[in-house]
Amino acid sequence: MLKNDSLLTDGLALGLRGRDLLCVRDLSEDEIYRVFAVASVLKSELRQGVSHSLLSGKSLGMVFKKSSTRTRVSFEVGIWQLGGHGLHLNCSDIQLGRGESIGDTAEVLSRYLDGIMIRTYDHDEVIKLAWYASVPVINGLTDLFHPCQALADMFTAYEKKGKLTGLKLAFIGDGNNMANSLLCICAKLGVHMSLACPAGYEPPQSVVEMAQSDAALTGAELEIVNDPLKAVKDANIVYTDVWASMGQELEQAKRAKCFAKYQVNKSLMAAARPDALVMHCLPAHRGEEITADVIDGENSVVFDEAENRLHVQKAIMSLLMT
Ligand code: CP
Ligand code: NVA
């Protein structure tokens, strides 16, 4: 069955067409809820067997400098479900990996594609790619931000809790790309966030300041603490991520020691609200940042978050690339 596609994004795509998504701060609160509205329709209609060809004839290039399961599969399947085509461009296979400039790569890819998704290390590379590209660029994770994951996470919380404003999210662990993106999205959506990390592993001050400036407008209270028990007190959502991110493999042993007290386990969860959602962007290391009984327990929504990457990214592509 094919449903009227234009009705789905008309109006909602206003002002979003042709834009980049490099950080969740690129979207206003209203635009984030428009992404959620489209994602929600696409999700329920997919389950009813209703198809859409919103991206018919469109192609998305997916440039990867780092490994991926969820991002690669959800973008590729997502654009295919909407009638378009995704090209997996591993950096070691394309000339970018042999030193062709980001600028020339962006110019060339823009002549073939309708959008570029990139996963890389240095966030400045994504900014540069977007500067030179004439098609929308979507950040599929950098060392600094992971906006698609944060959007899927908040969409998941919204589905489960029915609201976001006024909720409290506790992030336990490294002040990394996930922590940064969650700070930004919580600030935009009026979600209080308490981040507990060891001294020296806080998010960059520049990110905290940007988030604080948005929080001042929405009433979100953001705090960085060292005590995980303080962070999880009264939390509606308890979120964690790996202690060593991609690119930090050599620091694994040192980090395991520094973060030992920052594990999300049953005793930490006892200090949160009894119905607190357990979140993790995955991949997870059971027995390190989170115990198996918690990530596989009844409050865990980690696989809903992973599924929602698909629906939210289909919405993002439909709004930016049509
Ligand atoms: N959460 C996430 O982005 O997973 P991948 O690294 O598998 O894409
Ligand atoms: N912080 C993790 C997230 C993986 C999706 C990393 O960058 O490796």
Describe the structure.
- This protein has 322 residues and is an alpha/beta fold.
- It has two domains: 6-145 and 307-321, Aspartate/ornithine carbamoyltransferase (Rossmann fold), CATH 3.40.50; 149-305, 3-Layer(aba) Sandwich (Rossmann fold), CATH 3.40.50.1370.
- Helix content is 43%, strand content 13%.
- It contains 13 helices and nine strands.
- It has helices at 5-9, 29-48, 70-81, 102-112, 123-132, 147-161, 177-189, 205-218, 228-232, 252-258, 266-269, 292-295, 302-321; strands spanning 59-64, 85-90, 115-119, 137-139, 168-172, 192-196, 222-225, 237-240, 277-280.
- Strands 7-6-5-8-9 form a five-stranded parallel β-sheet. A four-stranded parallel β-sheet has the order 2-1-3-4, sandwiched between helices.
- α7 (177-189) links the parallel β5 (168-172) and β6.
- α6 (147-161) crosses α7 (177-189) and α7 packs parallel to α8 (205-218).
- The chain is globular and about 50 Å long.
- It starts with a helix and ends with a helix.
- The site of phosphoric acid mono(formamide)ester (CP) has 8 residues, from α3.
- Norvaline is lined by residues 141, 176-178, 241-242, 245-246, 281.
Describe this protein with a few key phrases.
322 residues; alpha/beta; Rossmann fold; 2 domains; five-stranded parallel β-sheet; four-stranded parallel β-sheet; 13% strand; binds phosphoric acid mono(formamide)ester; binds norvaline
What strand order characterises the main sheet?
Answer: 7-6-5-8-9
Bound molecules: phosphoric acid mono(formamide)ester, norvaline
Measured on Cα atoms, how large is the radius of gyration?
19 Å
Structural class: alpha/beta
CATH class of the largest domain: Alpha Beta
H/E element order: HHEHEHEHEHEHEHEHEHHEHH
Span between termini? 21 Å
Question: What is the share of helical residues?
Answer: 40-55%
Summarize the main sheet. Answer: 5 strands, parallel
